[in-house]
Fold each of these.
Amino acid sequence: MHTISKLAPLALAAAATLASASSHREAPFITTAPKVDASDFYMFRSYEPGRDGFVTLIANYLPLQDAYGGPNYFSLDPNALYEIHIDNDGDAKEDLSFQFRVQNKLAGNGAGVSLNIGGKQVAIPLIQAGSVSQPRDPNLQLGETFTVTLVKGGRRQAGGQMLAAVNGGGTELPKPVDNIGSKTIPDYAAYAGRHVHEVKIPGCSTNARVFVGQRQDPFAVNLGAIFDLVNAPLDVITNPALINAAPNTIDGKSVTTLALEVHKDCLVKPGSSDPVIGGWTTASLRQARLLDGKPASGHQTSEKVGGAWVQVSRLGMPLVNEVVIGLKDKDRFNAAKPADDAQFADYVTNPTLPALLEIALNIPGTAPTNFPRTDLVTTFLTGIPGVNQPMNVVASEMLRLNTSIAPVPFASQNRLGIVGSLLAGQSDFAGFPNGRRPKDDVVDIALVAVMGGLCVANGDGNSLGFGTDCKPSAAPLGATAFSLHDAVDQAVVPLLPAFPYLNTPRPGAQ
């Protein structure tokens, strides 16, 4: 079933990214709660040498962090629940949930750090009291730690088990402070590297690795121009020689990363021959919040929370909520589970983005007309037959990864994933939309997809299985669609060659 044809991935790879990009501030409510705003989700076979049997899961939160964002910087919310979900039987329900909780505590059992000022002990205003170089550094006034709990079955079931450090460090793992600057942390790369923890996963015979901390945002996009009705000349964004003509507008921004590397055999369904898994990330807050008008001394004491967990953020395929889901339903999508995605089907079968691009670029009559867009349904909601579609699948939106497809070394990865690999006569089938790697330029593939590149690749017949309505005649832009890009090259973003793959964040001061 999971053999790879020479043609099907070509078209489907384009469709898979109908709206792929970072999901920064994508829904009305989430703009009020940036600490639980998911910006990107990645899922790929690890390409670090010697780790090719593992799958890396990366969920980024709290986007658009500025390096100089002191004095409190960008700690995560201790009253939030951050989760990475895995569906390993295609039924659109989570079978494994990795639940991240953070704890932010002041030193001295909550008293903080004080200095003797004129005979009085007075609390300092900064989160550091000197140079920082090690986990749980004594010079940190604010210590950040996290736990990871694995829940099998429904995410709210009891009986979850915590991941424990292999070296006897327990289940509460230290998180590095953000990159304050070179005087506070002279070697941030080395300091952050000491926070990559080897952990034991309950029920898994192979140890995993986990990292939670600030990273440089790995995404590249011409963000301002894209949302200003694609404010770029058509002769630039259709010229492949100009794929890096514009600056990356989020270059230098940071995110907070939850990264987990798990052996693939511990993610697939036990006893099943199906290597395909689906994944997505969510964040939830408590249903009720009470603000204390006279908070006590301490850290984050002004808020009391209670009630059931309420999901407020969701991200699988990138940018679906940002430019596919209608404005009136964006909060609903963030609160929904994949099993309930039928309610959003019209946004995929009859997408508005192609028509908006037609208007924005002043190229009337060029939007695809093959309604309903069954080609997009196949890729977004069921996976690609022969590539990453589960044996038994319930239509739902999430990233899907065929764990039996070997990873490709970073230098050989095609920035356009499967579609670019096939166009170049290469054999890189480990990229988007078969999961998603940091190097995959999903925005450019999206532009190809929405303006009909998939239908052009489909040809005059039905050789790609999209239905007879998906023909070149349904995509008036024709072969030009394959040249579309946003003038920002994802492939030049600096990345690390090993876990957690995302680059060291910029310091607040040199």
Amino acid sequence: MAYQISDACIACGSCVEGCPVEAISMGDGKYEINEELCVECGACESVCPVGAPAQK
């Protein structure tokens, strides 16, 4: 299952820098993960200071 970013996102950009496949982009006030590009590696989750990314 692809990762999804919760409303806890503080839009710091850590997840974007940590994503090896560039699946994360800015959405409406928070970052969003493109499910088709996500390889479920967990890199975004490990670098997020607030734990916003999680598997669906």
Amino acid sequence: MNGAATSKTPGLIRCAIYTRKSSEEGLEQEFNSLDAQRESGELYVSSQRSEGWVCLPDRYDDGGYTGGNMERPGLKQLMADIDAGKVDCVVVYKVDRLSRSLLDFARIMEVFDRKKVSFVSVTQQFNTTHSMGRLTLNILLSFAQFEREIISERTRDKIAATRRKGKWFGGKPILGYDVVGGKLIVNRDEAFRVRELFAIYIETRSVRATTEEALKRGWTTKSWTQKDGTKVGGLPLTNPYVHRILTNVSYLGKVQHHDQLFEGEHEGIIEPTLWKRAATILEANGRDKGSDVRNTHHGLLKGLVRCRNCDKPMSHTFTTKAGKRTYRYYACHAAQSRGYHTCPSKSIPAEPLESFVVERLRALGRDRELVGVILERARAHTRELTAQLEDRRATLQRELRWLASDERRAGASSDADRLAEVAERSRPIGEQIREIEEELADAAKNELRRDQVDAAFAEFQPLWDQLSTRERAELLRSLIKAVEYDGKAGEVTLVFHPESSRLAAECKP
């Protein structure tokens, strides 16, 4: 802070000139809007020199900041200097440069009054030391706030109209596209990465695992060069960034406005079937609070037990005494929220219920009909996996065809560097296609047989004994969709995957 002319001299009025511009456009110019506002302020202060007015050398500029709030560094510095007694008068080009909010302006004027600081607008002649000046100021500020609200409404209407026409409204470019002439144009290299991210997520069913795999491959966020030549992006991928990719409808060739989807002008790079599979997994993981089982209190059936009477989940909980857990149970959410008298099931002890479920799994090998259902489920899973592998192979093959067209163009123009680059990119894609074809062959060769299911059930107990609590819970979740408890009838029903497979038995813990 320059200390020139800041100490109070009798008859001297120290004037601080505040300037503001809402956008950053044009600020790079040698003489910009902030300079023009300050020049007008300095000329006005000079015209009042006979009254003892002197312009403080310090600049209070806010370039690229809205007047709708007070989160502005220049304004904060000005208020701090006023509070320190270094300013007698604040000069602005127009009232709305200081604030466009009537409430914020009232707060600022309260400080001015308390510190006996006057306020002057160069283009709107008034002084707040007079009552008429105050009235004029409030009228002008009301119109400034009204203008800001009208601009906001028009901007929202413009965004909505642009979305309905399928146009890209602007903002940061997204991975997979370049912005050319205000439109999204597919970046073939990045589009391949986006398709691979979807494929990896469908395979791993985990955003974290997808991010880790992408980092191993050296992939980064979208990078681009701004108008001023500054390079932005190109950072290591993060879980939130990958999640935004997996949920961004732009990759379907659509644009979104609130809850509505519109066909976009740009080309989609993700097929609807691939998108739907990823969305289904994301939704399931959202219901389950992620793929990892957080189970610190040994609730093997956590997230699986439901009250059949209320059609509500039953949460795993426990009681404690002297800091030690004494009793575990599953309680109906409806009973907990509305009162235990509202639910006939209320709660069920955890250990007898969990023991019953595990014992029923041990006995499954003797149920030939259920073994048949399990076989069909395993084969359906194989068919689904095969379809996913074939889709991924088709995507990679399309990528090779795009590269082949690039290779032909590079050959026609004798671009040796481009030919070498295309060959370098084609090699790993070809290797991935060969790996997928090997997986397809293994899937066809290793289709599950009934004798393998029988053997698996025979080995259930030795396997169960070796698993940790977390692994046991994951195993149960992979086999069972829900454990329905009917407290009125005293029955427990296991709902397996697929949903058509049900095994009902009475449980009397």
Amino acid sequence: MAGGDLRLNIDEIDLLNKYGCRPFPRPEAFTFASSTATSVSNFAFDKSDKARSILIKESLKNGFKNTAIDFSESLKNSIKKLFKLSEACEIIFSPSGTDSSLQIAAITQIITDKEITHVLVASDETGSGVSAALKGCHFENNTALNYPAKKGDQIEGFRDVDLIKIPLRDENGQLKSTPQLDAEVFNAISKTNQLGKHIVLHVMDHSKLGYQSPSEDMLEKLNLLQDLSLQVIVDAAQLRLDPSDIQNYLQKGYIVSITGSKYFTGPPYSGALIFPKCVSKLVNSVKNTLPEGLNKYYNHSDWPGSWFCSKDLSDGFNYGSNMRWKAAIVEMERYYRTPILYRNMGIEMFCNFVEDSIKEASFLAPLAGDEINENPYDTKEFGIRNIRTIFPFFILKNKEVLSVAQVKKLYVLLNTDISNQFESTSLEIIRLAAQKCHIGQAVNVLFDNDVQSAVLRISLGARVISESWVNRDISLYFRNIEAQMSEITVIIKKIELILNTPDLLN
């Protein structure tokens, strides 16, 4: 829980943070919330605890500073190994995905003297603090190093920048088409380029609702622009990518922003930026230092040791962030231990079931307008980014969609034992009411393009696969996936139970 901001705080009764997660295992809950955040697994918690014990022994033997630096470097090397990345890539850890955006804003300030414009694609489906972070402003009322801050105020040392937001939906709430979004992005970049500015394009590869924009064709088209000063950042915070996808981005000179706490179900928050060799070389050659105000956000040890720009940052180590990354890497390692054929078969089996289950429930309406996500990639290979793994849905009562407030209330009730409301009913109903079900939190979306509502999300997380392969037995593997599919059925039944109990949503 250390080394983050107020978002990691837990309430004193349920011991859950604002995302419905506990900072220790919660095996009693059915959890398909990887599009938001997930409580740490028993397996990852135990491995992290062992790592902590080893760190204590090592620091007594080899000194505190050396041990902490070695631990952070070993985590970065594990990520490089898992994604088969070049040694020349650099990785910066950050306490959250929003902090990664602040790091990008800071690096951009020191590598160019030009005026800066950030073009933020999918601005309506990225983290709520990202816009503030890109402008060099505080996005919470305290920093990751626990200094007080005033949300919205500019951080010391940042100069003013422009921010062009390109939302996925129009003013009527209608999802824009891929050509429409591509045209908006291209026009924004070509016009800004004519003004002689340095442009940072933030590409979305899997938003909160599973969308990607702009297309690869549009990104290629940017090469036709004359005298273009551009850096592309890929927002892959969901990390619903295969290693080859990350390698492909880095080869093109793009910076990739990832987290260990979404698809891979590490504890929230754990962000990282992966820099390709060419960009790392550029940053390393710069003799400017990072904006002064970052001293209250990051330690020098979080950044590559060879970079001059970070030399004035605070001394110290972010153990919380490192431990969260340790847990996430443990999950990644066991996910990739599942043979790829069974992994892909399991993903397809689970995702098809979730999609069908939502369609079959008369009180659920899957989010329409999927045309933007219908595999915009020219590939015949099965890849995690090419299939839908996040399933958003509206909730209907008497054929009318619930209000935003009711959806948020239902989300909390789902994740809570509400059996005390059903004491005089059957044992089956009491058990259903008692079951804690944690799914992706509400995202505001217009229903039928005219009624303000919100969707909840059931998502595939890496644990669905890795925990099913735990016995390394094919027949048990598919049986284990079926057991998790039956948990989806329970979640949908509990939604129905809440809808059929009017007092609960009032």
